[in-house]
Amino acid sequence: MNTTAHSDLWPAFQQANRSRRAIREFQATRISSEDIYDLVGEAAFAPSSGNLQPYEFHWVRTPSAKEAVARACNGQRAASTAAELLVVVASPALGKKTALTQLAYIDSYSSMEPKSKEYHRKQIGKFQKILGIGGSLLLSPALFIAAMIRPTLSLLPIGPIGSRHWAARNAMFAAQTLMLGAAAKGIDSCPMEGFSATKVAAILNLPRGSVVPLVIALGYRADTARIEKRWRRSMMDVVVPH
Ligand SMILES: Cc1cc2nc3c(=O)[nH]c(=O)nc-3n(C[C@H](O)[C@H](O)[C@H](O)COP(=O)(O)O)c2cc1C
Q1: Can you tell me the distance from the alpha carbon of 39 to that of 45, in angstroms, rounded to the nearest whole number?
Q2: Does the Cβ of 215 fall within 6 Å of ligand 1?
Q3: Considering the entire predicted model, what is its pTM?
């Protein structure tokens, strides 16, 4: 695609981006399965570290589970009125699983250039090492001490805590892509971190080591939904030229 073709996308992107708002009251109208799968399908194209995609979207469909998750979202109206609830689940284990699936894919891809195969195997191997050896329990206190001395090291994906943060960070790219996709389809959303992760994990029976960075409420905005005035910092505050 040439530069001109890319620039044609800008108005559509801007429109979708500007129409995505945090909506906190929804109509009862459900969202079709096709739309949900379309959105998750696009979210999967989000970038991730080492392409390890260490996340899942748990679509909470049964009324009892949906009610329980909404209650675990501190009773937020966005959750209790949501037509659909998607729980973003992340874990280093999902990253490790993706690494194996991806290696099998590379091995079976006969027409992939040897150089590409080599590149992917090396990349995946590097991340397997980080998530494998780096997952050692002993490294969490080591990371804590290192981060106290050098705060910029706080985000290293080592130790059980560091690697869970890593997984959650990666999941958020997919979550944002999903919400932008929803906006492009005229579907509203509300990202929520105001919930009890322990309760949500218990309701969904998540394996130990999982973290829940976000619950996403989806639906069509109610006529009575209050849309807050949108405020952002000035470019001067956001861009720091060096
Ligand atoms: C990580 C994250 C957590 C959030 N948690 C909540 C939440 O628990 N409840 C809520 O009503 N909004 C929540 N929001 C929505 C923000 O309040 C909202 O995005 C912000 O005010 C900007 O408004 P806009 O999204 O309409 O532009 C969250 C947003 C993000 C990114």
Answers
A1: 10
A2: no
A3: 0.95
